[in-house]
Please model this.
Amino acid sequence: MSPRILFVAVLCCGLFVSCGSKSGEKDPMSEAAVVALSGDADNFNPVVSNSSTSSDIQGNIYPMMFDVSFDMREGKLTYGKGLVNSWEFANNGKDVILHLRSDVRWEDGMLVTPEDIKFSFSLYGDPEVASPRRSYLESMIFTDNKFDVDKSIEIIDDSTMVFHFTKQYPLQLFHLNLSPIPKHVYRNADRKTLRSNPANERPVGAGPFKLEDWVRQQQIILTRNSKCTLPYPAKLENVVFRVISEPTTRLTELKKGTVDVMRPVYPDDVKDIQENNPQIKLLTLPPRSYEYIGWMNIDIEEYHSTGKIEPHPLFGDRRVRQALTYAVNRKEILEHELGPYGELAVTDFSPIFRWAIKHDLIPYPYDPEKSRQLLRSAGWSDSNGDGILDKGGKDFEFTLHYNIGNKRREYVATVVQKELKTIGIKVNLQSVEPVVLYQNIEDKQYDAFIAGFSVGLAIDPAGRWGEISNPFNTVAFANRRIQELLKLGLHVATERDAGPFWKEIQGILHQEQPCTFLYWVKDIVGVNRRLKSTNINVLGVTDNMWDWTIGDPNSYMTY
Amino acid sequence: MSAVPLLFGLLTFTFFIIRLAPGDPVALYIQGDVDPMYAENLRNALGLNDPLPLQYVKWLKGMLTGELGVSFSKHAEVTRILAQTIPNTLLLTFFALVFNFFIGIALGVTTALKRGSATDHMVNITSLFVYSMPEFWLGLMLILGVSLHLDLLPASGMHSPMAHFLPTWHYLWDLVQHMILPVFVLGVASAAATGRYMRGSLLEVINQDYIRTARAKGLSEMLVVGKHALRNALIPIITLLGLSLPFLLGGAVIVETVFAWPGMGKLTVDAIFARDYPLIIACTLVSGVMVIAGNLLADILYAIVDPRIRYE
Model:
């Protein structure tokens, strides 16, 4: 066969296949939505999974104890019926009595029982399992520093159980909202190797969807669980999650219509989408993550060698930290990088918690003159006329670290370098590979760095501003009054009772400037308009996935 | 058999070098609402708190029994992960190699036979242009041009979503469509280089005495080139193809990322960023084996092309 004939044959074959009759066959995409992911899931066992992809998907496979939503007007979590039909508090709020639905079955037909829930909590609390969600149980009962599942969880009957806490606190229901897994599947599983148990790849759930197929690094297909008796059954037949790590490729798929939901869309792409892709609607999520410039508050050499806490030679003085914030034009950075998709950060209390925000705090303006005054009052001057401030013979010079490949932070770093130079501070820039950067930040190895932080759905500033040894207190900021306020705020009966304590903490943070809070980031989600009822909200893209429907069944782009 | 100690040395070197590199495998999992003790528990669970010699002995024991361990980041047996990804990379690399071979030879023969012509100059300039183009950029440009604007081919992935519902022929056609762009990007630069080598090799052969003799015998130009010149000119190209396998594997890292192709390249990059030690070592093993296999293939093809070569 000559090459020419072969070529024509292949072409005809292709045409035959692509134009071949599909009549009578239902297009599988007519009832499927496609979500683009930047990373794959690690597994589908909610006890041990780490990745955000797994978390998003598991919430749709396993039954949730409560149907949690976030009231944006109130700025707080609300709880609806899930596996738990009703609940009540007893013993001064220290006991939570749960009344479970008795008609929920695992995919294999077995009933979901209180035994499943108790078994699952025993796994969440076992240090051998090393669950990332173990901290949720820290206010339950521990014996000899071990989670005491029998004392913490009492099964009254087939549909009633009591959780015993050591105190009443606002997040009790939030901490109970851990997905149970089926005891009959994992009963004999080795706890040490639970993370790699093959059953984690074939989850037996009871939620609105079930796992149809998972090809690592490629796609995860969920199909409707027709036996789901929870109050939120799925409406769509299938949801396909495609792993596409390259942002440009992901965006291309969204524009082509081969992907229905994509997060995040970058602010730079918004104008183009709005002008050329009317089929895509862009939703802006309320901000839950912020970026900041960390100034080390303590002398880290002293701290690491002797454990003593002494003020940092450059940033230990509050006036210097305030001067640094005054010297950085945060508004210009915000407008350049995020525009309307960001918000100037005053402290690290997210604007979504409206009731807890101290609204009378005024963001530090860009004021280099004020900055110079503060530095002068802190004893910094250019005594040798070399253009760099000095004190006690030491120049004001430091290295600012940031993660390599992050364009936004690269921009912030260069702006900071330029602006601090105008007030006589020499900044050396150092980009670092992300894993190394985060490890060094948590180990308190850097004097100055640019980083980000995501806040949870409930206020808990203890990790960030608690003990210096806490890895999340990345700038080693210690303030006695904040420690007192944390204790008060975390031991109140309701969330709102903690409001005054949180507001006072914000006032102190604003005054002390342990770091320069830059901006809150509002993620943009691109959604194809063929997808209906996409109430994408602060809880995540897949929060109400069970409610999604397809408008036009023939609207999916195929070849 | 001489490859075994080579592989062992490579893996041992990798074992130590990745542990000496900065970065904690559990650092990425520590987020704001996570118990600080979690990191310690996880390190214990993953055996990272063991002394380095003990970790090495455990790893060595696993290797000798065919156990590659459990991936830190993907929480599954490394062998099962590899079983899913190796075929995808082999598929991509094989067709890129075929593309490289046939297009490269065709370009080389055309330019050699039309030496000094406008075609020769044009192909040479184009080859240099393509050879110097970064794969990352070329991939993205093709995605934007061919996929988004011309709407001729899919932009990424190995299959369309839900492709497993399609009849076999549709499923295969779907795969072919998804392969065209990544295979082209992976193979085109190597094809340009192969074309240049082929041109030089063929020009050298064509001036030999035996070619003159063949022409003097009155053989047609097609027979002279196809039967006498090409076979000898191919010998250095075959060696080049075997050696180009490592470069294709290196290129696959970028091509798989751009085209969301679920193969070894993407897996290796993810493993390195996650400091997933067992997976990094396994990926190194697979790359090492593939490079050795490439060389072996080159040796075999060498013997086929040149009958004077016989291996004892």
Q: What stands out?
A: Chain B touches chain A through 67 residues (CB under 8 Å).
